[in-house]
Amino acid sequence: MAGKAANRVNVNVTTTGTSSPFTCGSAIAGFDLLSAMCNNGDIVEYAITDGANAEVGWGVVGGGQTTITRNIWESTSAGAAISLSGSATCIITLTAQGSQAILSLAAQRLAGGL
After folding, report:
1. 20 to 30 Å CA-CA from 42: which of 2, 51, 59, 92?
2. Which residues are registered as beta bridge partners of 13?
3. pLDDT tops 80 at residue 3
4. Could you say which DSSP state residue 29 is in?
5. What ranges do the domains of the chain cover?
6. If we measure between CA atoms, which residue out of 107, 91, 102, 103 comes closest to residue 28?
């Protein structure tokens, strides 16, 4: 598995409930499909919005490049998976948690730690 960053992936989520993985459907107008930018086994960071509910986390792409497992870092559901309505959207993005990990590693290298 490899970490993957992907520009311009913003898709509809067809899954309902809190199950994992969730299914990525059609691309939002002007954006790309998950399957166009990622491969099965890629590790991605994501943000889901569903009305007033939101979740950010990381997951592994699977299901023929149409699903992402849910490993939640933060959500409007007290850190748990939000309940999806079938009308959510998901964007592949660099989260604050991912950015902090990169900055910490860079600081260690600058300090001669790695």
Report:
1. 51
2. 24, 88
3. no
4. T
5. 10-110
6. 91
